[in-house]
Design goal:
126 residues; mainly alpha; three-stranded antiparallel sheet; 3 strands; 9% strand; rod-shaped
């Protein structure tokens, strides 16, 4: 089942475990196993009968996301912007040494070209 992130779940994620699960607050949706979610929701309602539906569902989703459940049970579905930023950061880390090497080769080639041009200019008859 797809669970949409909401302000209540974001608040739990910000406060939970001293903010150790803040990275989940960015994701707009989560894919949760329906039976595991129903089981967690029943546990939450048994422990906290005073909670409303939205709070109980948010707390059940929080339990699934923070319990170390395998990806088959609870997985974040990141937004396109988040995936694009993560890809660009990972790509930049991978490409950075090659960019430095390319820059060094370009500077060396420019230096050699300028030396050849100046020597040709000096050797030309006036």
């Amino acid at each position: 089942m797809k669970y949409e992130n909401n302000p209540t779940l974001r608040e739990y994620l910000q406060r939970g475990a001293a903010g150790a699960h803040r990275e989940h607050a960015r994701h707009p949706n989560f894919e949760l196993d329906a039976t595991a979610f129903a089981r967690a929701l029943d546990e939450v309602r048994a422990q906290h009968p005073h909670l409303g539906d939205e709070e109980a569902c948010a707390r059940a989703a929080f339990r699934l996301l923070t319990s170390g459940a395998p990806p088959e049970v609870a997985v974040a579905l990141p937004s396109r912007g988040y995936r694009l930023r993560a890809w660009s950061v990972q790509t930049a880390i991978t490409i950075w040494p090659w960019l430095k090497l390319l820059w060094a080769v370009a500077v060396l080639a420019l230096g050699i070209a300028s030396v050849l041009f100046l020597s040709a200019l000096a050797a030309a008859p006036c």
